[in-house]
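Fold it.
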Amino acid sequence: MRAAVLSNFGVPLQLAELPVPEPGPGELLIQVRACGVCHSDLHLAEGDWDLLKRITKMPLVLGHEITGVVAAMGPDTDGFSLGDRVGVPWLHWTCGKCEYCVSGRETLCGEQAITGVTVDGGYAEYVKAKASHVARVPDNLSLEEAAPLFCAGLTVYKALKSSGIRAGETLAVFGIGGLGHLAVQIAVAQGVRVAAIDIAPAKLELAKECGATWLIDPAKEQPRKALRSVGGAHVAMVCSGAKSAYETAFPCVRKGGTLVVVGMPADPIPVSAVTLVAGELRIIASAVGTRADLAELLELASRGGIRCRYETQPLANAADALDRMKRGEITGRVVLTPDRE
């Protein structure tokens, strides 16, 4: 099979021929029809995150926003059939026994395997996955539009859920990219008023299409002043990986509000203890989501509440997609389609 392979950190991806994986007990072989290109893939490829760099498989096939059809099944995969439409998320496997798994917080499992990090992912024609952790794709969603929901959509859905935001309150989304434009839609579907903050006109226009009430360009007006004029943000969610986004977002949170850490810059983010205490602010972080969260999200998407904006590219363009992402040239999501070369 063809795959886009990362041979070492900081080295461009190269197309290569690899053996088709063989599914073992409890595993499915999936023919990949679509795989979203996530900003995490770029950070992983460049070795930006020390915590994950230590556990990253090398050489590696990136990709953790995968959809496709079941091509083969190992033993103990009851409930699946050849041709089933399924998706594979970031969480490749969790133990199911530790305190985090049994309390519904499997994203914190210390034994977890990670798709496209510790095991090969979806920048390939085939991928092997644990039957226990794949999800069925609703029939009324195309595999291309569903793929980014398996990380980008799931991440912001879980983050919004954890924030406790309620209908009628104000959410400020910093960075209207692959995650941000989905966060806008999910929040609007829940009755939340949304302010979208970005310096790219095309991304602000996308936020408007997704239902944002306010569009703020920090190059033209101060987000703090603009948001304070409407009472401040009950929740500010930073979907950008830029440290400057956090510096801008923090003062926009109203007293008693919450800053949600989603985007992960390589450098530490600045936090004022005085401001935290004076405003009784919360800072929470959210890492992807559980299988239960994913099921809820896919159900919401199947009802028409979410539509990912995406463009398709052949697998051969995987390295170029990462370069474009690094330059900030992607609006929405790039989805690789290995079956359409």
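The chain is about 25% helix and 25% strand.
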